[in-house]
Design brief:
The protein is mainly α and 231 residues long. It has 7 helices and 2 strands. The N terminus is likely disordered.
Amino acid sequence: MSTRRLSIYPNGQSFEDNLFELQRNFSALAKNLHELDSINGSLLSFNKNFATFLQGLSLNSERLRFPEAPNADTYALAERPVTPPPPEVPPPEIEPADDVQEPAQLPKATSAIPRAHAASEKGSAAQQQKKKVVIKAGTRRRKPVFQTRKITDLLASRFREQPHKNIIEQILKELNLNRDGMYVHEITRDVGNITRSKCLDYMNALVNTEAVIRVNKKGHLFYLDPEKFPK
């Protein structure tokens, strides 16, 4: 006798689809729980570090003293009403006395020096004043003004045009201030907005005018000719 297996699901439907859906939902739940565990670990780490910070502040406030911190006397002084300023008292009026006499004028003292001797002293005083004026005039020597136009007029035509002319004038002024000489990197640093190759081009043009001297001293050292342009 053969037995027949009865199925409660019509058309042979099985649990495979439902089990697959259940597995997918459990996977999403495990992922969310893993993220919650990570958030929980971050919160625990933050609470631990923040608790250490608060404990340090508490110990610091207990161990350190702040003598300049406000106290009860400070608050009492702040709440005290402001004392009004005292009233201004006008100065007493002084009446002029009637019996005050003016001081008598003293007689002029007569000079006992002879007129001839006084004239000679006046003459010597005038000569001394003239000598002082001459000495002062001799000390007022004006410092010679450094003129860059004498040098720029000797340059080639392309260097006499802008903006080359202004840059060369700035270089000459820096060389006048630094009579011991300047290197190329010092010139580019002080003048600014100029490259090393452009600076070398300008310095070669100035050397051709014989107003600037170039010396090989651990590099190219440039300085003004002291004979043509004394200090």
